[in-house]
Every structure is written in structure tokens, then in C-alpha cells.
Amino acid sequence: MIPPTSAKAVVETGPMRHARAGHTAIRTQDGGVMVTGGADGVLAWDPVHGSRQGSVNATLNSAERYDPTSGTWALLAPMRTARSGHGMAVLPSGESIAIGGDDGTGASQRSVERYDPASDTWTAAGSMTDPRFSFGTVTLGNGDVFVCGGNHLRDGQGHVLDGAERYDAGDGLWHRAAPMRHARMNHTATLLLSGMVLVVGGYRGTDAVATATVEIYDPVRDTWRDALSLPRGRMQHTATRLRSGKVLITGGAFAPFDPGIASSIVYDPATDRWEPAVEMAYGRVAHSTSLLVSGRVLVAGNASIGDPVPARTTEIYDPDTGRWEIGVDLPEPRFTHSATLLDDGDLLLAGGRLPVSHPVALCTAALYRE
After folding, report:
1. Other CB atoms within 10 A of residue 370 CB
2. What's 282's domain CATH number?
3. Which residues of 282-319 are buried (b: 16+ CB within 10 A; e: fewer)?
4. 56 shares its domain with 83
5. pLDDT digits over 282-314, tens only?
């Protein structure tokens, strides 16, 4: 770990209209940022046992848009269904879709809705075959939206999925894809330069620890193949495709409700090999990673319940040296926030929760500037 080598800054920007965490954020074609769903209120969280008893927490159907020019947020028409742990994607038409998620009633959703920014309206966009939340979402090279895995929650019981589906942006219909070789949730799904999809780690629901399995989906042939497994399983990590085409995996946990891990590792799809990387200064889970305009990667936040210091920090990975440096601290600690790169190169960090014994949702937002 080395100290900062270039000037950086984090500045506060306008707060969201609703406090929220576990929401989804996308950059729209007009350069703004749209956030949907998530949950507000206070989460009663036992980091050892994962208990949520005593939570005062509501899943949201609200949506809002950030205007980078004015630094302000405006409410959009609400979704038809409240969602958290859902997926979002921008379609070639400029419309966007909200996919699945947990509606807060103890059941996963298969419903999908489509947002038209011209009319500020949501309409039904068909349904997936399987209800799911905490799944992987990728926009393929042809504009179709691909989802895989996740948790089918019903009657308070989870069922981890191996199923995959794709939304055809042309006909507006969902189509079954070949199932994964391994059921998983809380994994990552990353579009490679080849147009294939890399799926890493996650939780199978049948073991006490995270899975180390890795697989690659070919959308042209609709087939999966195993890739080289991780040295050790992890879940709730992040994956960032670097300019070289390699994929940086950071943080996560070795098992449900474990503390965050500091290790990072790089996958090279050209050789199907994992390359060890220098550890981060802090173990991190429920953090964000973002590829900056410079080609470096910013890591921010952490679910370090009871210890706000790691959740306030940022770290920067330099692919040229394979090393991490300490970044500028955030105005306030946070986790389960969103991080979205703007057209001007600023990174918008919005919402999340404070890492206190009863984590409260945040409405605040900040801009990271290189």
C-alpha cells in the first residue's frame, strides 16, 4: 500500500429525494443517473448471526434522476412494484428496464417493467420464468439483457437458482437461456471483450461457505463452460473489467455474514489464469468498485458495522503496477451504496447505509474527482 500520488477530491453534491440503500443506479443516454428502488429506514443488523429482527425498513418503488449539470435530483414516476436487490439495464431505444428483486413481503419477483423517459411512464415488460433477486445482470453486445442465478425467495425460504434468461430488446420478450453449471447468488457477472459473460463465485445455498467455481457463458452458442476456479470461494465481492480485458475481483466474504476480506485477484480470460494482486488496506464487503477514466479502479465503502473508519475510506488500484494506494476519504461512511461514472469523468456515490449497530439509510451523495 502506498500513499496518494496525484491530486484527488471528493465533494458533496445534492442529496437524493429519498434515503435508500441496496438500490440500483444506471447512467442514462442523456448523461444523467437514474436510481430505482432499494430500502429506507433502519436495519437492525447482527453482523455475526445476520439477524434483522427489529428492523424498521421499507422496500421502495420510487425512482429519481440526478442531473450532473445542476447537481440536483428530481423524482420520476414510481415503479409499479417496490424492488430491492433487483437489476436495471438501459435498452438501445434509451428506455430502461427494472428486473425482478425482493418486494419486501418475503417473496421474490419475476415481474419486469420498462421505463420511457420521454413520457415518464412505466409499463409491464413481461415476466421472467423464475422469480429472483441478488442475481447477475449484463447487457450483451447486441443490446439484449442477460440475467443469471439469484435467490427465489418464497414463504421466507430461499432457493438458489442455476437458471438464466435473456430479454430480447427487439421483440420485448424473455427467453430461457441454458442454465449455469452451478447454482449461485451474490455472485458477479461481467461482460468480457469477447462478448462472453464471466460469472465468478457466489453462494450455492447448500454449503456453509462461498463457492470458488467460475464459468463463462457464450451468448452466440447459448452454452456454458467451466473456467479455472478461484483459489478460495468468495461471495458479495465486486468485479471490474479493466482496459486490458482482464477482470479485477475485490473483497467480499468467505461465507455468509463473515467480515469483508482484503484480498484482490485478477482473471485473465486469454489464459484462463488467476493472477494474485496486492491486498487492499481494509477488508471490504458491500463496497463499490468503479473503472475511472484514467483506467484505474476506485474502491469505496465497507459494511464494517460498528467501525466507521474503513467505510469512509477509498482505495485506488493501478493496473500498470498492480498496487493499491490510499484515496481521499468520503464525507461520511457508507455501504450498499451505488457508484456511477458520469460523462465528465466524475464518479457519483449515492445513498447506502451508515455502518452503525442499526444502519440507517442515507440520502446523501458525493462526487469523486480524479
Report:
1. 16
2. 2.120.10.80
3. bbbbbbbbbbbeeebbbbbbbbbbeebebbbbbbbbbb
4. yes
5. 999 999 999 999 999 999 999 988 788 889 999
